[in-house]
Design a protein that fits this description.
710 residues; eleven-stranded antiparallel beta sheet; 26 helices; 14% strand; binds arginine; binds aspartic acid
């Protein structure tokens, strides 16, 4: 934050406390009154009550938690739902086959009968949220141990959740905020009949792929369309073909009007996790140990995978989703580390900790409550660091080898004397699933790289394994595993399972892949993982106290509770940024950029002929801006994180102008430290979304269902 901004917000603070700090923050909808004047000052034309109201339909009634980690919004009075393509990806894939490759070609239900049900998908609507801190902490005394405290808190939460939903079909959940200093109750309505309505082809919905992921300028049409169904009584019901489209209390109005720099905008959705209260020690661990280890190991993995994907089409299909998953975290952590370094976060946190020590020393009450906390944190992280390193190398090296993971997933087969039909079915499925997307040469190369890294860096490895590796040598071991292991022979494994071949099963016990894998994983599960999780739990009480102290020490600052996958509002303005010296990024992109990126030889940049045709004829319909351009994406200063994908991005009047789907690379440290100069969320312009539905997919009947202002 610049000096000037600090001064200005400092001045304002004195005048109208409490006031939110601009741009940073993910605010609780039920307390949005506290932000209202700030939001209106920044351009908002509606009231906090229009956004969240328990007694009347409000915008919150149109925002949903989509599955377990994305957001969606209702855009018609028939339960039509928008979310990201990458949020619907797994479901689109599950309906895809070689004959109907919806992932590649897109899918559009021509009428409600063609909409496809999705096993396991739910959509959660918030009915109400409220503070239940007093009830949760009822019976807690200061001199209790952490365990005693936990027992009471858990019991109280159970009672509160039960009472809150008695006699209703609602589901309740209590979640801590401010690291356990406060508790909120969320009463939800969970719908489970959710059907796929439409999805663009991947080269629109995933345009730019992993190359463009986390980056601006962006041209991804990252959306998919679903519909909520319910029983005839309007209540949630499991899938039934006679269920009816859900009629929401409120659906969003869509605006096709032009937007411009500095326009007010807010994001309403379910951010997953932020960690603003971390100490310098925690940031140091992430920045200097956890991230570098993971980045290095994933770089090695991705280089190998890419090499094979380029050589062979089948491998590309088999590994594209895997590579996307590996690359998403990898790229985010690289960006996060750059950002943490650029903002010198560790140093600033150290200064804050010094100030804290002075503040504590000023007064004996504080000394009694908070004395020695910084030292306690230091001691804690000294203990955690080496164990965290073991965890990192196990997870990112050893257990990231596909054959190893598979061996562990199959090891139950060794315990069975004979296989019953259910087990047969289960193992057959597992074997088929594994080999469907498996390339053994590729995996061997990864084994050679990652096992080497694991044995060179992990300290806590069973002695017998170490002896074996020393005696045989990793290279020979790897050669034997990949040439001799029966486990890696699909046909033989299928046969053994199908025939319940006892002799072969017995022989499997000595299979080299099993004998190598099992002791290491078992050792990790019984020694390292519990040590790590027990130790991690030890900071619960420290973190709770630290958060309380930080808030007490900085009374001039308005804090937001860290994201925890509960409904929040983040607000700011549409704005470009300066990523590097001498560079300025504009705040929006157009279809022009899609054509500039087009490359028929690179999978991520193939442009569909139909889209090119629409481009050639400038056939943008009512979706063009006033310059005649077709807008594709834009960026804003809204503070968002993972989970916000698919969130509605709304204008000053509360109308839908886009779908949140990503952040700019330079700002991915915002989970730990937000910076208004660098942090931008990336938004799909609703006009490109509707253009694709209407003009590209000829599914205008869906657009006709929506409420649109122009
Ligand atoms: N970076 C975005 C998020 O964290 C989008 C990820 C999906 N896209 C991809 N190319 N992997 O979820
Ligand atoms: N792409 C993320 C998501 O899927 C959003 C983000 O991390 O900004 O939720």
């Amino acid at each position: 934050m610049s000096k000037k901004r600090i001064l200005i917000s400092g001045l304002l603070l004195c005048m109208l406390l409490p006031i939110a700090q601009a741009d940073e923050g993910m605010w609780l909808p039920y307390l949005l009154q506290l932000n209202e004047s700030d939001m209106q000052q920044k351009g908002m034309k509606i009231s906090a009550k229009d956004i969240y109201d328990v007694n009347h339909g409000s915008l919150k009634d149109a925002v949903v938690l989509f599955g377990g980690g994305c957001t969606g919004e209702i855009v018609s009075d028939q339960g039509l739902l928008l979310t990201n393509h990458h949020c619907g990806y797994g479901y689109i894939q599950s309906h895809s086959s070689l004959q109907h490759d919806y992932l590649t070609n897109g899918f559009w239900a021509r009428n409600k009968n063609e909409e496809l049900p999705n096993n396991g998908l739910s959509v959660t609507l918030l009915v109400e949220m409220k503070d239940v801190t007093a009830e949760v902490l009822n019976g807690i005394r200061n001199n209790m141990t952490e365990n005693e405290r936990k027992t009471i808190v858990t019991q109280n939460i159970k009672t509160i959740q039960q009472k809150a939903t008695e006699g209703t079909h609602y589901k309740a959940v209590v979640k801590p905020i401010y690291n356990g200093n406060q508790y909120l109750l969320f009463i939800n309505e969970v719908f489970t009949d959710i059907r796929l309505v439409g999805a663009p082809p991947s080269n629109i919905g995933k345009f730019g792929g992993d190359t463009d992921n986390w980056m601006w300028p962006r041209h991804t049409g990252d959306f998919s369309v679903f519909r909520i169904y319910c029983g005839k009584d309007g209540k949630p019901a499991p899938y039934n073909k006679d269920n009816v489209p859900y009629k929401p209390k409120k659906h969003l109005t869509i605006s096709l009007k032009d937007t411009k720099t500095n326009d007010f905008t807010f994001v309403f959705g379910y951010p997953g996790m932020t960690q603003q209260f971390l100490t310098s020690f925690a940031v140091e661990l992430i920045q200097n140990q956890t991230n570098p280890i993971a980045i290095d190991l994933r770089t090695q993995r991705l280089d190998i995978i890419k090499k094979y994907m380029e050589k062979d089409k089948l491998t590309r299909i088999q590994y594209s989703a895997k590579a996307a998953g590996i690359a998403n975290g990898w790229k985010k952590w690289i960006g996060q580390n750059n950002g943490l370094q650029r903002l010198d976060v560790i140093k600033h946190k150290q200064e804050l900790e010094q100030r804290f020590n002075q503040w504590v020393a000023e007064n004996s009450d504080r000394q009694q409550q908070y004395g020695g906390m910084v030292e306690a944190y230091k001691a804690f992280y000294d203990q955690l660091r080496p164990i965290a390193k073991e965890v990192s190398y196990f997870m990112e090296a050893f257990y990231s080898i596909e054959s190893i993971k598979f061996a562990w997933q199959m090891h139950g087969i060794l315990q069975a004397d004979s296989l019953n039909s259910q087990q047969k079915q289960q193992y057959t499925l597992r074997i088929n699933n594994f080999f469907k997307d498996y390339n053994s040469n590729l995996d061997k190369e990864i084994f050679d790289a990652l096992a080497t890294a694991y044995f060179a860096n992990a300290q806590d490895i069973p002695n017998a394994t170490l002896d074996k590796v020393h005696k045989i040598g990793l290279t020979k071991l790897s050669n034997e595993i990949y040439s001799k292991s029966i486990l890696l022979n699909k046909d033989k494994m299928l046969e053994i399972v199908a025939k319940d071949d006892k002799k072969a099963l017995n022989k499997l016990k000595k299979d080299i892949l099993f004998t190598f894998t099992i002791p290491i994983v078992e050792h990790y599960n019984t020694n390292i993982a519990p040590k790590y999780s027990n130790l991690s739990k030890q900071t619960d009480s420290l973190d709770r106290l630290w958060t309380k102290a930080m808030m007490e020490m900085q009374p001039e600052k308005t804090f937001y509770p860290d994201a925890n996958l509960t409904l929040r509002v983040a607000y700011g303005n549409i704005k470009g940024y300066q990523p590097k010296d001498g560079m300025i990024y504009k705040h929006y992109t157009t279809i022009e950029g899609i054509m500039q990126k087009e490359n028929p030889d690179i999978y991520d940049y193939v442009v569909e002929p139909k889209l090119k045709d629409l481009y050639k004829h400038k056939d943008y319909g009512r979706y063009a801006n006033k310059y005649g351009e077709l807008p594709v994406c834009f960026i804003a200063t809204n503070h968002t994180t993972g989970g916000n994908s698919g969130s509605p991005v709304l204008n000053a009047k509360g109308e839908l102008i886009g779908l949140n789907f990503d952040r700019c690379w330079e700002g991915t440290m915002s989970d730990i430290q937000y910076d208004v100069d660098l942090c931008r969320n990336i938004i799909l312009d609703i006009r490109y979304c509707l253009f694709i539905i209407d003009k590209y997919a000829n599914a205008k009947y869906l657009v006709d269902e929506m409420t649109i202002v122009q």
